[in-house]
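Sample 3 of the quickstart, ligand pyridoxal-5'-phosphate:
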Amino acid sequence: MSETSPKLRAELEGIPTYKPGKPAAGGGPVAYKLSSNENPYPPLPGVMESVTAAAASFNRYPDLACTLLINELSERFGVPASHLATGTGSVGVAQQLVQATSGPGDEVIYAWRSFEAYPIITQISGAKAVQVPLTPGDVHDLDAMADAITERTRLIFVCNPNNPTGTVVKRAELERFLDRVPRDVLVVLDEAYREFIRDPEVPDGVELYRKRPNVCVLRTFSKAYGLAGLRVGFAIAHEPVAEALRKTAVPFGVSQLAQEAAIASLRAEDALLGRVGSLVCERLRVVEGLRAQGWTVPETQANFVWLRLGELTVPFAAACEQAGVVVRPFPGEGVRVTVGENEANDIFLKVAEGFRKDL
Ligand SMILES: Cc1ncc(COP(=O)(O)O)c(C=O)c1O
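Result:
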C-alpha cells in the first residue's frame, strides 16, 4: 500500500472535532444525560403518529423544498415563504451561512466561549475566526464585537441565549450593536433556545429581522420541540441570504420524517410550550437551589445552567457522573448542566451541595 494519502484541504488541519454530550452511563441504577441540552420529554403521541405514518414511505426521497413545513412556518411567523430555509438542524443551516458568506481571507466574529460548532464551521470554510471574550459576567461583549469588525468581516454570530452560559443580550444593547454593523455584514442571531426565554427585555430576533436585511435568525426543532434526533432547523432571512441557503443546502437533507414531525409539532405547539413552561419552573428551582448552596450562577434564559468551576470542573463532572447524572465539562472553565427530569435535577443539586461542602 502506498504511503501517499489523498490531498486534503489545509484548512482541515487542527479542526477540533465536535464533542457530543456524553451519553448517560449504562449499567448503573439511574443514569441521566444532562450533557446535550436535550428535551427530557418523550415525543408527543400525535407527533409519533405522523412520524410512523411517514416511515411507511421512506423508500421515497423527501420533498426537497420542504414545501408544507415552509408554508406552516411562513404562517406561524408571518414571513414570506421565500424568506425561510430549512436544514439538517440549525447547525446545518449555520454551516451553510458560513459557506455562503465566508472563505479564505474573510473573517467570522463570535463570542467565546459560545456554541462549539462556530469554530469548526468557520475553520472548514477557510475564513479566520475572530473570537471575542465574554464579559466577566459571561455575557456577550457587543461593544468589543463591534470594535472587532474590519473590512474583511463577513458574518457575526450572536448566540442568544448563549450556549454554554445561558446568558442573554437585551433589546437596547442588541439594537445599538446592529446599528454599528455595516449593512453588508451578515448578523446571525442564533436563537436555538428562544422558547425558554422569560425575560421580556430579550428581543425576538424575528422582529429585528423585519427591519434589517442583514439579520438572519436561526431556530431549531431540537430543543423546545423535542426533535433533536430528527435533525431539522431553519433560518428566517431576507433575499438574497435565504436564496443562498437554498443554493448551499445538501439536496434532500431534511427527511420526510423530520418534515412531518416538525409540522405536527407546530400544530401541537400548546402542549410543547406547556412542557417548556415546566422546564422553566425546574430551571428556577435548580438556579435557586444552587444559589442557596452558595454557588454563583449567571442568570440563565435557556434550558441549562452554567457553573464556572475553573480547575474544579473535571472533578465536579466526575462526581456528577458517579451519582448518575452526566453533565458537560469544559475543562479549566466550567460545567454546563441541562435542566432535565425532576429526579435528575435532584441528583445534580445533591452532588453540587456535597461538593460545595467539601470545598
Ligand atoms: C446555540 C446553538 N445553536 C444551534 C444548535 C444546534 O442545534 P440543532 O442543529 O440540533 O438544531 C445548538 C445545539 O446544541 C446550540 O446550542
